UniProtKB/TrEMBL annotation:
UniProt entry tagged with the keyword Transmembrane helix: yes
Enzyme Commission number(s): 2.7.13.3
PROSITE patterns: HIS_KIN, PAS, RESPONSE_REGULATORY
Keyword set includes Kinase: yes
Parts of the chain that traverse the membrane: 21-40
Residues bearing PTM 4-aspartylphosphate: 735
Every Histidine kinase domain range: 439-662
Native source organism of the sequence: Sphingobium scionense
GO molecular function, one term: phosphorelay sensor kinase activity
Top EC category: transferase
Domain PAS: 305-374
Protein name as annotated: histidine kinase
Length: 806
């Protein structure tokens, strides 16, 4: 290839022409003269034309000698030595591959990370990684660039950027960049250069962070001022030892202060390398360190120096404590006490006293290992005695030169984080329980519909005084009580049917006050107070009354010896919500309802479970465990939030926040008064689609007794077949949830052929939830369980809503 390039250069760069060039030129001139002579017959003109041809050829040869042509981009060969030098100058591992996938250039760092210089994407034996890089390469050929983030290779995590490059864009440029992991060194740097570093300086403590090579990485202002003379001095990267001196007695001084300075006491805290998270490091002296320097007090002695260190630790925002070689606790700062759950004015004797019994031996052994031998640092997972269900990391570091102090312990205060985790877990659990409760209630409603319906049919054949009449009535009464329980389950799962109105909370409290006085009894006093300028809320008034009654009855049961029930309403503007810093409550304007008592209170271990369905602290047979779960469901379905607060012996408070209604029409919505019709007899053909046999049977009998001709189907597909038959259908009654084809899908198909067909949906789920998911106009809704009379009335009203025939 080199020989071919050399020959091309000689030809194009105008080197000495070959010997055959002159005869060829003469022959061309003679031929041209002969042609002219033959055509014109003039010898002088032919000779002049031949001379012109010779002159032009000579000029072209001379021009090519002066201005040789440049090779085309396609014929140019890249100078990979320049590309390789540029790649080595960067901090990335760089490789270049051609169209055939061959490696044509790579940096030295690429060879270090990937021995043998493999051609990307085969840089790793991991098949999934190779597949991912291959797909990214195809994308780069197609789109011009691609990226793969955080691939794992040995101990590295790399981001890979791929770009199409070259004059003809026939190469791929691969750039492998290490992902920078967060490090404890960054945290220490922020502390030293921030407010905490300034406070350390005011306390007379100089703090420096050095690398394993002994060079300064960061320092607080106190060290900069004394070691360099200026608080804004830049000494990063300088040798720490160059700023220190040691006298003949082995005492440590700042070099700048010469003989007038005070001796210093040095505390070394090893910092764990980011590449070895969570592990104990042997030989930590070779790694980064935090150095703390304090003036040696008069007379020396580790005990006096320890008081300086305690002052230092009390200023730091980290939870820190110190222990001696025997494992006894010498000092605990406030952040450590808060994280460990230590009460005021109490200091544990040993670190093991803070953890559960099973972890005490491990903590004691770790303290002994860190107190002797080389300085080390590391973490162990422990369970604190105050919070045994949540393991946390206890960091330990061996320290020297502080007299009795031998081990530094660190504990992160994650109480807020743990509280948030518990709230999220509780919300997730409540959501799962709500879905389960809603499904159970839906299935139970089908059973109750059949029971209540058959009771109604039997009561039509019996009159009061018959031997079976009272028994049937008792069965129906108990079924209605069971239906009430299912409504509570649906309320908890936020799937019940609500009739929201724009209203004022004080009006609801006033309406229910008389009932509360009878429920509370004579030994419980009711105290009601209202705030001013309360915003209107949008909710179901009947359900809000249920909320207040349930909370009041629970409060009464918590005050067996009597007490006071306080009901308070007040406004909570958005700026006050912002000041509350509540993680769950969005910032907005609310109207709050507080129901509090002076009873026994709720234990902390029970407080997180009170809204769960079927959870009750009452004795067997005296509570269903659905009272507070119903309250929770109604509040959440109304768009509000509820919080419980309690202290043992001082009662409990439930605070409900309902968002202020921001609609255009603030006036109360007047409910439509239904037209009362006692006549439920009807005519026409009804198509009944229901997958539950027992519900379909009782509904068919009930409609037949009212005069309708009833056709039945067990799912949507069968219903469409009946609709397509010869029989004209006047009314379609259908369940919502069915196998194969559900009710809404069937109605959507039916409306294409019968746009005016009246439809009545019956379901155990909430009407609001169904209407959000069912995009069908002009349909009626009948909630389960329903009686025979309710079904007849719903069918009559649905038929009456048909548009009049033109």
């Amino acid at each position: 290839m080199a020989a071919r390039m050399k020959r091309d250069d000689e030809a194009w760069m105008g080197q000495t022409p070959s010997r055959s060039f002159v005869p060829l030129l003469a022959l061309a001139a003679a031929a041209s003269a002969a042609i002219v002579l033959y055509a014109i017959g003039d010898w002088a003109l032919a000779a002049g034309f031949a001379a012109t041809v010779v002159t032009i050829a000579a000029l072209l040869a001379w021009y090519r000698h002066l201005y040789p042509p440049i090779l085309s981009d396609r014929d140019a060969v890249p100078d990979w030595t320049v590309a390789r030098a540029a790649a080595d100058a960067s901090s990335m591992a760089i490789a270049v591959t051609d169209r055939a996938g061959r490696l044509v250039c790579a940096s030295d760092l690429f060879g270090e990370w990937f021995p043998g210089y493999p051609s990307p994407p085969a840089v790793n034996a991991d098949a999934s990684l190779i597949e991912g890089l291959t797909a990214a390469a195809r994308a780069a050929w197609r789109d011009g660039e691609a990226k793969v983030e955080a691939i794992a290779h040995a101990t590295l995590r790399l981001d890979v950027d791929i770009a199409r490059t070259g004059r003809s864009e026939d190469y791929l440029l691969w750039r492998f960049t290490p992902v920078r992991q967060p490090s404890a060194l960054d945290d220490v740097h922020r502390v030293l250069t921030g407010e905490a570093g300034r406070q350390l300086g005011e306390a007379g403590i100089m703090a420096v962070m050095i690398g394993g090579e002994g060079r300064i990485r960061s320092a607080n202002g106190a060290f900069l001022l004394r070691a360099a003379g200026r608080i804004d001095a830049n000494i990063t990267g300088r040798d720490f030892a160059a700023h220190m001196r040691v006298d003949d007695k082995g005492r440590l001084f700042l070099a700048r202060e010469e003989s007038g300075g005070l001796p210093l006491r040095l505390l070394q805290v090893p910092l764990r390398r980011a590449s070895q998270p969570g592990g104990v490091q042997n030989g930590a002296q070779d790694g980064p360190m935090l150095l703390l320097l304090i003036d040696e007090p008069a007379g020396g002695g580790g005990t006096s120096a320890l008081s300086y260190i305690e002052t230092l630790l009390s200023l730091l925002p980290f939870g820190l404590a110190m222990a001696d070689r025997d494992g006894r606790v010498l000092f605990v700062n406030k952040a450590f006490a808060r994280a460990a759950g230590i009460k005021d004015a109490e200091t544990p004797s040993y670190p093991g006293d803070l953890v559960v019994r099973e972890d005490q031996a491990a903590v004691a052994d770790a303290v002994r290992r860190f107190a002797v031998g080389p300085q080390m640092s590391g973490d162990i997972a422990v369970r604190m005695r105050e919070q045994p269900e949540e393991p946390i990391a206890l960091s330990l570091a061996g320290v020297r030169g502080l007299g009795e102090a031998a081990v530094l312990l660190s504990l992160k205060d994650n109480s807020e984080e743990s509280k948030l985790k518990r709230q999220v877990a509780q919300a997730t659990k409540m959501q799962a329980i709500g879905q389960l409760a809603g499904g159970v209630a839906h299935d139970f409603n089908n059973i109750l519909t059949a029971i209540i319906g058959h009771c109604d049919l039997m009561l039509m054949r019996h009159t009061p005084g018959d031997s079976d009449y009272d028994d049937i009535q008792q069965i129906k009464s108990n079924s209605n009580r069971a239906a009430g329980l299912t409504r509570q389950l649906l309320a908890f799962s936020r799937q019940q049917t609500l009739r929201p109105q724009v209203l004022q909370l004080p009006d609801i409290v006033a309406d229910v006050s008389n009932l509360l006085k009878r429920l509370l009894g004579e030994n419980v006093k009711l105290d009601v107070s209202h705030g001013r300028n309360l915003g209107a809320v949008r909710a179901d008034p009947g359900q809000l009354e249920q909320v207040i009654v349930n909370l009041a009855v629970n409060a009464r049961d918590a005050m067996p010896e009597g007490g006071t029930l306080n009901i308070q309403t007040y406004g909570v503007p958005a700026n006050r919500v912002r000041e509350m810093r509540q993680q769950i409550l969005p910032i907005s304007d609310y109207t709050a309802l507080r129901v509090s008592d002076t009873g026994l209170g709720i234990p902390p271990d029970i407080l997180s479970k009170i809204f769960e369905p079927f959870f009750t602290t009452k004795e067997l047979g005296k509570g269903t465990g659905l009272s507070l779960s119903t309250v929770y469901g109604i509040v959440k379905q109304s768009g509000g939030y509820i919080f419980a607060e309690s202290e043992l012996g001082r009662g409990a408070s439930f605070v409900i926040y309902l968002p202020v209604y921001a609609g255009g029409d603030i006036e109360q919505a007047k409910p439509k008064t239904p037209i009362k019709r006692s006549e439920t007899w009807g005519t026409g053909t009804v198509l009944l689609v229901e997958d539950e046999d027992m519900v379909r049977a009782v509904a068919e009998r009930a409609l037949t007794r009212q005069g309708y001709k009833v056709l039945t189907a067990s799912d949507g597909e069968q219903g469409l077949e009946v609709l397509g038959g010869s029989e004209k259908i006047d009314l379609l009654i259908s369940d919502v949830v069915m196998p194969n084809m559900d009710g809404p899908s069937m109605v959507a198909h039916a409306r294409r052929s019968f746009p005016d067909l009246p439809v009545l949906f019956m379901s155990g789920y909430a009407e609001e939830q169904l209407r959000k998911s069912i995009d069908i106009a002009n349909v009626a809704f009948l909630p389960k369980p329903f009686s025979v009379n309710q079904l007849a009335e719903a069918a009559r009203d649905a038929l009456a809503s048909r548009p009049a025939a033109e």
